[in-house]
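Shift notes (night). Ran General transcription and DNA repair factor IIH subunit TFB5 while the centrifuge was going.
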Amino acid sequence: MPKATRGVLIECDPSIKALIVNIDSSQHNIILDELDDTHLMIHPSMVEVVKQKLNKMLAENTYNPNEEAAKATGK
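Came back to this:
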């Protein structure tokens, strides 16, 4: 008999999907199913957690020239 699972469909770029898979690799309770290269089904209660962790990861990997200028001047 088929089993139904409630989830949230996420459509994203393959690079963002890789980040979400990386987040899930440490917890194993986020991704319910990997549908294809750009779609994931994730647990409904984990949507906000994924958003927060993605924002943090993307902020860490974003170049900000103002921060570089502040470091150079010692501020």
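The CA atoms of residues 20 and 38 lie 11 Å apart. The mean pLDDT is 88.
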